[in-house]
Amino acid sequence: MDFSSVSPAHSFPPRDGRSFDERRPLLLAACKQFITDSRQAVHSRHDAGASGTDVVHWLARMMDTLVTDLFADIVTADNTAAALAGHLTLVAVGGYGRGELNPFSDVDIMFLHDGTVPQETVEAFAQKLLYFLWDLRLDVGYSVRTAADCVELAAADATIKTALIDCRFLAGHPPLFDTLHKTVFRQILPKSSDSFIKEKIAEMRRRRGKYGATIYLLEPNLKEGEGGLRDLQTALWVARVKYKFDTINELVIKGVLSEEELEVYHNALDHLWRMRNEMHFHTGRKSDQLNFDLQVHMARYFGYTDRGRVLAVEDFMRDFYRHAARVEHFASTLVSRCIWRDEGALKVLGYFVRRPVGEGCFVLKGELIVPDESVVEKNPAVLMHIFELAQKHRVTLNIRVKWLVRRSLHLVNDKFRRNRAVNQAFLNILRSDKGVADTLRLMHHLEFLNEYIPEFEHIYCKVQHDLYHIYTVDIHTLFAVEQIEGILNDTLSRELPLPCRVARQIGKRELLILSVMFHDIGKGEGGGHAEKGAAMIPTIARRMGLSKEDSERLEFLVRNHLLFAHIAQRRDLSDEKMILQFARQMGTSENLKMLYLLTVADVRAVGSDVWTTWKASLLNELYEKAFNILERGDFKLEAGSERARTIRRTVREMVEYDIPAVTAREELRALPVRYLLSTPLADIADHLRLLVRLESSDLVLQVRHEPEHGYSTITICTFDVYGLFAMITGVMAAGGMNILGAQINTSKKGKVLDILQVNSPQGFLITDENRWQKAEDDLRKVLHGTLSVVEMVENRHRPTLLTSKPAPRVPTRVEIDNEVSEEYTVIDIYAHDKVGLLYLITSTLNRLGLYIGVSKISTKVDQVADVFYVKDIFGHKIIAEDKLNDIKSTLAAAIDDWT
Fold first, then answer.
1. pLDDT tens digits for 602-628?
2. Spacing of C-alpha 98 from chain mean position
């Protein structure tokens, strides 16, 4: 687009002797109109499909026209031309210097002078232009420097040095700019080219650490994140310092890039520009973070549509990650070529110092090299041996070997996948006690893993549009492998003592690692991913040459990989019959051990906020209970009544000096048998002492802090009243306390013994005794009817003016299970987390006339998955279909209406 024909200067008021300041209001109006008209023109072309590259260049030219017109007007109108002529140049730096501006990008300029004019004169001129640009609401960064200043500052600051690489003449005295340009490329950069390259690589690492050290974060940063614009820019800065060129096309002439790679660069840059342009236009501001709301808009804008159960936004983000992976690969390759020097000399020297490791591979200076690359074409199995040997000798792959692998992916065909040597080498990699996750990650990065295991393509860059999973499915899988490797190698023994102890008993570690690799492999196929993944296993196992027994165990683990967490977190672990059914389903203790370890790795790999000591305790409890049944070898329930009698007798002996024998006998007989069978003896004795205290008080509350678990256990003893649990949850919600789990017990004497595990919403232990005292006082007032729990929750729930982070909403789902428990109807509730939601659910259950016997509370970042074991007012399960439907619809409506 030609902006000279619509230059703001055409609308500038005549000077007619007036100064710039006198004409300023009219100038400001003309420039605002120019910006509005120009941006609208560019926006229209963007919407019509203009390339990202064209748009950023048009916007830069628009800014050039504006800035240079203003520069000329100020110089002429205020008679500063004589003082500054030949002494001042206006220079564009940074992205603006490259001639690349997004709609709301920063505009960086430098006032370059030769030092012969008083500094105050230059600064006065600069301020006049800058204040005008700021009044136009432009984000303008600036500096006032001489060429000597640039040399001095660049020596101490790599950021300044980088900005100078991209400097461009705008207006003023051209020879002054030419001097700066020569200074940059002949004096500043050559003196420190090696240190500059090291600085930029270190900066790239720091940046990735800040914005996400993986491409596959679910809310990536388009500019600073891995695979973003800054990766391409960094690669180009490093290449310009190393190879001294003006345009990237020269790298093809110099033999650094191929024509195909140059095309990859241009396409990648254009795609990122087009996305960033739309983000700016849509938000009306500078915007680089692809948050969930923006992702939905971008998917729609770029023409993606829903495909059955696969959302348009998931397809859009999957393509984004594939594109980001290509950007990261291009950038890493170009940077690596810049630091790989004196290759010819190394070949000669390497002949004498390299160490042969087999299959035509050698180790040289901590890297695996393949001097004769034709060995791969002659024997494609070498491709797998490359990874095996690098892992075995604890070395990295040389950059040329990485190129070799990528260039040779076409050799990975069905014959290769069924090759016994190839599969043996792969299993050797999994059996190794070091570097399994790193090797698989490298295979994934070079796209070798997708070729070797084609089913992996289903989950490659696969997005799950929620806050619970913060990585794509393939990256989550690799993190899970990292977790299982840490467990198998005992490096996580302090954090995970039981899993590490169980891992030492595993027969085939490679089979366990394969189960982790394949547990989500069915996710690319829509719903029911566990079954779909399990259906793929026989084919994969046959191809890999696994035995029938190993294939069946692998299929079992993939099919049931959700079961262990589901039972542990969402079912009553004191229900012996349910535990017995679960143990029977496991069949063997080896199946149980592997499924337990797979579950631990899976949950821990989801995200840092998901794994908690509370979840760990639930998984451990289920494992130990099921393992004891399997080791016992019989699947018969022990006589509960006999065990309960023994427990009562033992506890009476424990409290004989504290509680009269008759009182202890009565209280213990009144307690539910399931409570007695599932509670440690010391805890029963402690609870008995609390229950006896109810004779002199209507509420007894005990708090026990458990810092090693990250929560406090609250035991509440009181007399049963209708809706008691809703009152308790309301008081906790009003006090800013997060309930992790609740065990509800009601004795035949009408006494309630509720045991809650509680921490802060941020996951911290609450140690402030004043908060606990207030919670007790509030609960007592609620029980006495002097305080309204409804008002307490509503006050805590007041709307805020602060904006919350955009997040995908979890659709409310209510499911009812009448099979899992003989005594209770089980209600599963899945919903988006909200303040006071647990109170809302429990009070709604009360209104429906339901009695809550057991509650399992689970929160996953922005989602809740709560379970309630309920009976009707007569103590029966709810069977009637119309009543069940009423429960579902009433709960769902109440949750959705809770804003």
1. 999 887 667 888 889 899 999 999 998
2. 33
Task: Decide: residue 567, CB within 10 A, 0-12 exposed, 13-18 middle, 19+ buried.
Answer: buried
Q: What three-state secondary structure class fits 864?
A: strand
What pLDDT score does 635 carry? 58
Task: In whole angstroms, give the CA distance from residue 256 to residue 813.
Answer: 56
Got the DSSP string for 722-790?
TTHHHHHHHHHHHTT-EEEEEEEEE-TTSEEEEEEEEE-TTS-----HHHHHHHHHHHHHHHHTSS-HH
Q: Say if residues 170 and 68 touch (Cβ distance below 8 Å).
A: yes
Tell me the C-alpha distance between 519 and 517, whole Å: 6
For the beta carbon of residue 704, count every other beta carbon within 10 angstroms: 11
* Token duo for residue 678: 């599932």
Question: Apex CA 192: angle with CA 188 and CA 197, to 5°?
Answer: 115
3-class DSSP assignment, residue 359: coil
**279 contacts: CB under 8 Å, gap ≥ 6:** 222, 287, 288, 290, 294, 298
In eight-state DSSP terms, residue 456 is: G
Strands 859-860 and 850-856, sheet pairing: unpaired
Band of the pLDDT at 716, cuts 50, 70, 90? very high
Q: CA-to-CA distance for 559 and 594, rounded, in angstroms?
A: 13
The per-residue b/e assignment along 445-482, b for 16 or more CB within 10 angstroms, e otherwise, is bbbbbbbbbebbbbbbbbbbbbbbbbbbbbbbbbbbbb
Angle subtended at Cα 313 by Cα 311 and Cα 317, rounded to the nearest 5 degrees: 125
Q: Which residue has the tokens 């309301």?
A: 730
Name the nearest CA neighbour of 623 among 577, 573, 673, 575.
Answer: 573
- 3-state SS assignment for residue 110: strand
Task: Answer whether 495's CB lies under 8 Å from 604's CB.
Answer: no
Q: Answer whether 557's CB lies under 8 Å from 585's CB.
A: no
Beta strand 711-719 with 751-759: parallel, antiparallel or unpaired? antiparallel
- State pLDDT tens for residues 458-469: 888 887 655 555
DSSP-derived letter for residue 10 is: G
Dihedral angle of Cα 297, 299, 303, 305, to the nearest 10 degrees: -110
DSSP H or E segment with residue 155: helix 147-156
Which pLDDT score is estimated for 805? 46
Rounded Cα distance, 196 and 158, in Å: 7
Between CA 644 and CA 713 the distance in angstroms is 24
Cα angle 550-554-555, degrees, rounded to a multiple of 5: 120
Give φ, ψ of 224 to 5 degrees. Answer: -95, -20
> Is 89 strand, coil or helix?
strand
Among positive and negative, which fits the CA dihedral 502, 503, 508, 512?
Answer: positive
Is residue 775 left, alpha or beta, with left meaning phi > 0 and alpha meaning psi from -120 to 50? Answer: alpha
Structure tokens at 403: 């190129």
- The structure tokens 């609450």 sit at 766
Sheet holding 361-364, edge to edge: 355-358, 361-364, 367-369, 396-397
Q: Please give the single-letter amino acid code of residue 311.
A: L
Contact call for residues 676 and 696 (beta carbons, < 8 A): no
* C-alpha–C-alpha distance, residues 247 and 435, integer Å: 41
What residue ranges in 359-418 does DSSP mark as E strands? 361-364, 367-369, 396-397
Mean pLDDT of 699-713: 90
- Rounded to whole angstroms, the Cα distance separating 559 from 585 reads 12
Residue pair 106/141 in contact (Cβ under 8 Å)? The answer is yes
Radius of gyration of the chain (CA): 34
Phi-psi region of 358 (alpha: psi -120 to 50; beta: other; left: phi over 0): left
C-alpha angle with apex 125: 124 to 127, nearest 5 degrees? 65
* Helix (H) or strand (E) segment spanning residue 73: helix 52-77
